[in-house]
């Protein structure tokens, strides 16, 4: 009895997300087919011209836009940015420096500081717990009189 290994495939939307590109800007043959894991790995290892161009100039999906602007995806929505932006549009927004962008960057910086504080607090607590001697099991304790 031989086992047949099936090829793992994914929807174009999933592949575009993994590649960090905006699905609607990809070529039609990419959007209309399925992408195997091997094809995805090949695209990542040796991206074709269309993929290099999309990554460089966009349009970029919201997670990439948010990262390039230094804000969260929710911050983009609060700022009224709901569509994909090109690198040129992102650069223009950075230069313009609207009030919402400055505010959202400050919020994001506070979120990162808080995450670091919590991580350090948890590490300190774990270190403290490791220093304590282990409690004796109930069977090893002396009975009360």
What does the model show?
By secondary structure, the protein is mainly alpha-helical. The chain has a two-stranded antiparallel ribbon. 14% of the residues are buried. The chain is built from eight helices and two strands; from the N terminus they run βααβαααααα. 61% of the residues lie in helices and 3% in strands. It has helices spanning 12-19, 28-32, 37-45, 49-57, 62-69, 73-78, 87-96, 99-131; strands at 9-10, 35-36. It is flat.
Short précis:
This protein is 61% helix and 3% strand.
List its salient traits.
3% strand; mainly alpha; two-stranded antiparallel sheet; 145 residues; 8 helices
Beta-strand percentage? under 5%
Instruction: Tell me the structural class.
Output: mainly alpha
Low-confidence stretches: none
- SSE sequence, one letter per element: EHHEHHHHHH
Q: Largest sheet, described in full? A: 2 strands, antiparallel
Helical residue percent?
Answer: 55-70%
Number of strands: 2
Our measurement of the CA-to-CA distance between the termini, rounded to an integer number of angstroms, reads 69 Å
List the strand order in the largest sheet: 1-2
Helix run count: 8
Shape: flat
Mean pLDDT across all amino acids: 86
Radius of gyration: 25 Å
Describe the secondary-structure layout.
Blueprint (H helix, E strand, L loop, with lengths): L8 E2 L1 H8 L8 H5 L2 E2 H9 L3 H9 L4 H8 L3 H6 L8 H10 L2 H33 L14
Antiparallel strand pairs: 1-2
């Amino acid at each position: 009895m031989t086992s047949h290994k099936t090829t793992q495939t994914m929807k174009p939307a999933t592949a575009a997300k993994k590649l960090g590109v905006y699905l609607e800007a990809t070529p039609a043959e990419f959007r209309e087919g399925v992408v195997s894991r091997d094809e995805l790995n090949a695209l990542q290892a040796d991206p074709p011209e269309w993929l290099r161009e999309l990554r460089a100039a966009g349009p970029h999906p919201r997670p990439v836009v948010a990262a390039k602007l230094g804000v969260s995806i929710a911050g983009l929505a609060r700022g009224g940015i709901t569509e994909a932006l090109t690198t040129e549009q992102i650069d223009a927004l950075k230069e313009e420096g609207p009030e919402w962008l400055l505010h959202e960057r400050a919020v994001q910086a506070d979120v990162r500081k808080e995450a670091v504080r919590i991580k350090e607090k948890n590490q300190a607590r774990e270190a403290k717990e490791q220093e304590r001697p282990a409690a004796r099991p109930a069977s090893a304790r002396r009975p009360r009189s």
